[in-house]
Amino acid sequence: MEEYRGIQMDLLLLIALVALTSVAFVHTFLMGLQTWEHRRFARSHLTRLERWRPTGRAMIFIPCKGFDLGLTENLGRLLRQDYDDYEVTFVVESPWDPAYNLIAQVMAEHPERISHLVVAGVAKQGGQKVHNLRTAIERKVRPDIEYLVFVDSDARPRPEWLRSMIGRLEKSPGDVGAVTGYRWLLPERPTLANHLLYGVNGLVASLLGSRNFYPIWGGSWAIRRTTFEEVGLLDAWRGTLSDDLVATNVLRRRGLGVQYEPACMAVSPVDGTLWGHFAFLRRQYIISRFHLPGLWAAGLIGSSILSVGWLCILAMAAWAIATGSWLIYPAAAAAVAVHGLNMARALIRQNLAIVYLPEHAEQLRRSVRFDVWLNPLAGWFSTAAMLASAVGSTIRWRGIKYRLEKNGLARIVARDAAIHAVNDEAAPTTLDPIEWPSLSDDDPAEELRRKAA
């Protein structure tokens, strides 16, 4: 009887192993096909950048707070775009922001480009970033501006970024409301934390492609001014935290899609701790849960399939070794098959990384190797963050603690002490557009500070 029960148990475990392996294998195979298609799509676009020759005045909005990695280079790239008819508007919360003087210096180094620096003041409700954007748009957008373009201060776009973004938007069909890019992380140091976040980012980025209904990524996107006004996005942003996901929902309700443009994939330097990266992922997933719950649930299921499948296969192999069961052989075969397919998918993904960042191939070498051989770790890291995002409604973002409400609004719970110390009530709300050659011979940063006083 005991022998019969043992056989029954082995058969049940074998059936479970086959089922888990099949699901994980199919999931990995389909995601691999998606990555392959993304690579094909990206290559076809990046080899034909000269086709984009749009016209029309654009204004780029860059909300800044504190020092991001490589901030000087990031901002300089935005003032050196391969497009003639555009202006740049930087926006900060306060003239005492650490980025304020650096922005002034970057503006002074590029007198050929019309640029503005707006001081938005402290947000009373909603996210500080959204408040900054709303203030800058209200003060700087004019009827002759045809395109509104948004980029984060930690993004480092290619010279053709703006031209490609506007060109894609100009040629898009009437049912497309916006064009988005995304980020490809560039680890500053080859640490475990950076490798893991790099792997997670690559998994997400590879899901983009040629379809028309993607979420907007707030760090690199554009919309026609007329569309922005027609859908009432400025009012929709009031009191909210997420500029991009709110915009995505507003456009979808109007039947307007979002296209992804590979030339708008921006390099984003990254360097942090394991806990810092985990908190970042959890924050992103919580925001997604509140604004795009269907997409968040799909992401959780998709991430869990492979992560849980892997853990079960490894647990079964460990049990077989401990008990001397013959199941060690099918368990080992399952692990090799799934991991082998995962490695193939990772190789395609890392080839995609070189398509986007050929000049950084050497710097990416260790992260690429980590992702190819140990990619399940990034999957587990992401799944853990997604599970953690299933509960809670408070997040901390750039020194401010927010509570997300079910109606999509956000309430400020607390600010860091350093922020309280700044008398933002006395700060000016805006600075006029500056033509740097007309300034005195004084240091431009000091001149700006005097204008703000």
What distinguishing features does this structure have?
single chain, alpha/beta, Spore Coat Polysaccharide Biosynthesis Protein SpsA, Chain A, 3-stranded antiparallel beta sheet, 15 helices, 15% strand
Report what the structure shows:
The protein has a domain at 53-273 and 422-452: Alpha-Beta Complex (Spore Coat Polysaccharide Biosynthesis Protein SpsA, Chain A). 53% of the residues lie in helices and 15% in strands. It has 15 helices and 10 strands. It has helices spanning 2-46, 71-78, 99-108, 128-140, 161-171, 192-205, 225-230, 233-236, 243-253, 274-291, 293-323, 328-356, 361-388, 417-420, 444-452; strands at 58-63, 86-92, 115-119, 147-151, 176-187, 220-224, 257-270, 394-397, 400-404, 410-415. The strands form 2 sheets. A 7-stranded mixed beta sheet has the order 3-2-1-4-6-5-7, with helices on both faces. A 3-stranded antiparallel beta sheet has the order 8-9-10. Strand 2, helix 3 (99-108) and strand 3 (115-119) form a beta-alpha-beta unit. The chain starts with a helix and ends with a helix.
